[in-house]
Amino acid sequence: MAGVEEDVVAWRRHLHRHPEVSFEEHETSAFVAQTLAELGVEVSRPTETSVLGRLRGDGDGPVVALRADIDALPIQEESGVDFASERPGAMHACGHDGHTAMLLGAAKTLAADGVPRGEVRFIFQHGEELAPGGARDMIAAGVMEGVDFVYGCHLWTPLEYGKVAAVPGDWMAAADFFEITITGRGGHAGLPHTAVDTVACAAELVGSLQHIVARRIDPLQPAVVTIGSIHAGDAPNVIPGEARLTGTARSFDPDVRSLIPKLIEEIGHGVSAAHGASFELRFVYGYKPVVNDPVATELVRSVVRDELVEPDPIMGGDDFSAYLAEAPGCYAFVGAGGPFPHHHPRFVIDERALAIGTRLHVDVANKVLG
Amino acid sequence: MAGVEEDVVAWRRHLHRHPEVSFEEHETSAFVAQTLAELGVEVSRPTETSVLGRLRGDGDGPVVALRADIDALPIQEESGVDFASERPGAMHACGHDGHTAMLLGAAKTLAADGVPRGEVRFIFQHGEELAPGGARDMIAAGVMEGVDFVYGCHLWTPLEYGKVAAVPGDWMAAADFFEITITGRGGHAGLPHTAVDTVACAAELVGSLQHIVARRIDPLQPAVVTIGSIHAGDAPNVIPGEARLTGTARSFDPDVRSLIPKLIEEIGHGVSAAHGASFELRFVYGYKPVVNDPVATELVRSVVRDELVEPDPIMGGDDFSAYLAEAPGCYAFVGAGGPFPHHHPRFVIDERALAIGTRLHVDVANKVLG
Amino acid sequence: MAGVEEDVVAWRRHLHRHPEVSFEEHETSAFVAQTLAELGVEVSRPTETSVLGRLRGDGDGPVVALRADIDALPIQEESGVDFASERPGAMHACGHDGHTAMLLGAAKTLAADGVPRGEVRFIFQHGEELAPGGARDMIAAGVMEGVDFVYGCHLWTPLEYGKVAAVPGDWMAAADFFEITITGRGGHAGLPHTAVDTVACAAELVGSLQHIVARRIDPLQPAVVTIGSIHAGDAPNVIPGEARLTGTARSFDPDVRSLIPKLIEEIGHGVSAAHGASFELRFVYGYKPVVNDPVATELVRSVVRDELVEPDPIMGGDDFSAYLAEAPGCYAFVGAGGPFPHHHPRFVIDERALAIGTRLHVDVANKVLG
Amino acid sequence: MAGVEEDVVAWRRHLHRHPEVSFEEHETSAFVAQTLAELGVEVSRPTETSVLGRLRGDGDGPVVALRADIDALPIQEESGVDFASERPGAMHACGHDGHTAMLLGAAKTLAADGVPRGEVRFIFQHGEELAPGGARDMIAAGVMEGVDFVYGCHLWTPLEYGKVAAVPGDWMAAADFFEITITGRGGHAGLPHTAVDTVACAAELVGSLQHIVARRIDPLQPAVVTIGSIHAGDAPNVIPGEARLTGTARSFDPDVRSLIPKLIEEIGHGVSAAHGASFELRFVYGYKPVVNDPVATELVRSVVRDELVEPDPIMGGDDFSAYLAEAPGCYAFVGAGGPFPHHHPRFVIDERALAIGTRLHVDVANKVLG
């Protein structure tokens, strides 16, 4: 459809300029809702910052759900693009701006073409980057009721432009999240023996936690334990009495998944005891692994017009897994080849990929409905 | 003098409620200036947030300077006292509220009694907690011109109430300050191999820096290297591309003092190279050691009415050393016995010590002038 | 064949009592050579401590090679079995005693039954546990000339008794080996600042090397870096000027394999520089991955009389891979279920497994020749 | 006395060639006993490898004991001197060869001159380098009975040739010793998750123990914790189930001295728990601080013919402190200026110092007796 590709690029750049972090997608969801309404799509708001669009055909038929995540990350953009984030400390560094724009483009095409029967649902989900993510709120609000197949489309810079991955079985890792608090005893920086130094304790802890992946999990089982943030102290001459760390664990195997928090506890208590400090862990089981349904995946593969590839699974997680617990589906990855990894301050995508993702949404929906 | 003791306690509590961190002592210095003016002391403002008071006698005579530091620390108070800080994130956790109040009390007494000859200068100094401290600004503004002796009085909780320390020679350590920046490569928390993890690098660095004191400095030379703050990352699922640390080094010996930044550089570059990261150190030579003049110290000792003690030197630093480079003097410590170390969020003093410090200022001034 | 099973158990126990570490298998190889000769097998000695047995049929036909490794490990046995090692510091803790005995049992059966045509070669290889292993010496001596298929049979305690694994494709990891020398400056334990402490440096290095697997290799790529030994110092009151470490790296992917020594170098030089020490790495590429040939593996699977299972690949390495570079083949694993892992001082096997391995050798040979 | 200086050098070189480690000084003590006997000194053997010489005057008078330690260290010599150690792995790297020779020289001189009254005792003590040292055996055997003053003379390379230090009060640190055993679970190097890796645990422990001196002891109190040896594992491809470390702690203050083993316990148990390993500490209180008696020290100072200096105390320990618990005395240090620290494999002394030490022994003895 003439003009849709240009719209998608324009929408994506608008969203890129105005990123909103997880659960704060007020302007983003308003923009999506208004755009859908202008396209003639039936709009509802399952939650405060999410949007559901529906195109219903005249007769009975299958229901296919297409999902995009709309939230940004708390990263200060350094990409240098013209349409860089205008909001300090927030950035679309994972491509959700593109996901949102592609799904809007698919809605425009499908609305113009008309849905003959059945239904297409457009799920614009908030809060994918922060566990427990927005998917469970959406499902609780009923967006998956009656859905026969669910699809999603992720832009992926490690994959070259022109390639599409739709892989059956294990595809994305379980993604869990944790917060650690180390409590010591604050004091004068020149009198360390009168304090319990939480900086020294936290530092040893970060090193000791590396043994989980390096020594304590079967090397044949993929696993990651990342400390994403560490914060302690406000002054050079004061020993802080508390240190806070946050992180994420990734795995596929359920036994490995449940072993990781046990090991963090064991290591955390041991290292803190060595320093005379105390340790507290808050571990949140986030997203299950994304496991693509073989039949639903084959359907995607049948409509791919570009180069179909089958890369290794991905240690990134996604709460798309929550939809897959409700209906068979597939999370396809569209090559958007760029020099920087996702979540990097200089992350950029090859915008030509937007047309591929848009088309894939449309083709999959038509295939299910046809 | 009747009532002065009550004034000192009241002033101290007022200041404790309204702490201002280093170089932001606007209300504090205004309060001091106004109080001095009301007492009939000649007032000037050497810098924006400091105050100089002068009481001049009729005839020629010695000039004695009495100094108090007036700034607070960036600590969230947890002391539970009635007059706790009303300013979030700021606290008088080192006793400077008391120092200020005691010197105001001395001014009130000396103003009432009259200065027969010579001059008493009251130096209310800003920014003692942050190097390079306020003392050098005060001296540049001329507060030490013509001064014959300079004295200060520090409340000290490790010392029991009722005791006073005035020790000749090495008394407080050199206090230097540094900032470290580790630069890696940000990335997705599930794909650590595509990033350079600055949290892991900073953690190993903190551990490795412990070898400076533990292994690389003569054990007979007192030294401390403290990392007072560490900050990296904003999200659990993003590997941060930068980590920032600040800290302080304490020593007495000049060779040890100059060795420490060299070792931080050596260790920092080595550990960062091991992680593929880069390292940058900004090291600021802060305060020289406080070395009390034997003659000036003997003068203090001669007027102490309480129990004179001679404890070990102190690893805390103070820019009182800058005044000692201009005139002979002594930094006396007044026991204010409390359960928590200086710079602790629950720091409290024994307020009875305020009377001792106030009296010491007055007695020393009279002794010099007499 | 009546009595063979008892012989195999007896031979295995004899060998268990008299373990010889890699490249020192003098008595072991003499025992094998004599036993084979008594069985009527043609015997030669490809190297000083290895043995080749041959049974040739009358007419032309395929040549099948069966290989057992015969060396023990430098471990002090703590198994408590009656026939425990009589040689201090040496132990058959990997099951090579059983491998040797099973292949002798196969030789006895095949010699008694007669080989109709073609040839069966019995390769009793020395030095499997120490890279570069004995396989390359054997091949250089010509043991693989004219071989059509090569098979081996490994007892495996993580696998239950009664199960056999013969898995096509990637089966065992590449196993590489390294030695690290850290050179500092020896000195008096009470004067650490006059020395460069290699114990402290080596300790930090071991911790820092954990980042290779935990942070710097794709979590989807299996990899292990183990420091198997660390040695420094002879006295509590002397700082040693040298520390020595040895270890092994395991991987499947060639890029990961070649990345590991680069990272060890990077980390080693960085950490040593942080301590003022120097670092030297000797890295030996050991064994390639064992990749079983699909056709040869299918042949094994067709004769397995027990439960055929398909477990995950194994991070252990084996220079059986060297034979697989010369002829298609398969390395089968026979369940010998026991409570302790291979290379553990209390390692024991379920001796019933010996009959299964012996029979597998015989059946495979007959299948190839038949 | 003509010739004594040459004898002392020759004796010292002979002893240097034939070092014997602590408690194995068989040849050394035999050599001393024979030499003394030839000089006409009354000889007895308080223990198997020590010697007591006595020269008694005719009349009553004071008894002065002169002590030398005679044992060597388990270090492989790399000094390159002509008379280097002929015994592999043993070396006089602390100067005890010189101490022994100097005291023999003093015996020769005093025997030739004759002792007018009272008595000179020559204590040739074994096992100074290994706590609990030989001094307590000597004292138990009665060598200090009736002694009025006790003196020793230590060659010291950090002190320039020509200088002598005899300092009243705190002079050498308390020297304590410890052994640590970490017990994990041995296993296959490629399967770290089935083992408990004692190398990784020991490495983290060594790093964590640095916090004792760096963070947990008053920086004004001199203290050292050195890990002198670490040993684990025999093969690169086996994870060892046990690691052993030995070390020494140095301090002056009794509270610090007793705090150190408590902290080693706390840190050891914490770090080991973090790895799932167990920890055992054997801590031996070795030598008390050497505190020189003011009167006895003044006596030494009065006879020094060279440059008397007053350096800082020394973190090295010596069981000379045991004698000082029995009688007042002084441990004098004689400058033997060399480029390498004591206990270094390339340790050498300036042999001209031998004459100074010999003379000091003689002069002190004559002063006491005179």
UniProtKB/TrEMBL annotation, chains A, B, C, D:
GO terms for molecular function: hydrolase activity; metal ion binding. Mn(2+) binds at residues 94, 96, 129, 154, 343. It holds the Pfam family Peptidase_M20. Residues 178-252 form the Peptidase M20 dimerisation domain. Keywords: Hydrolase, Manganese, Metal-binding. Its cofactor is Mn(2+). The Mn(2+) ion enhances activity. InterPro entries: Amidohydrolase, Bact_exopeptidase_dim_dom, Peptidase_M20, Peptidase_M20_dimer. It comes from the Bacteria. Belongs to the peptidase M20 family. This is Amidohydrolase.
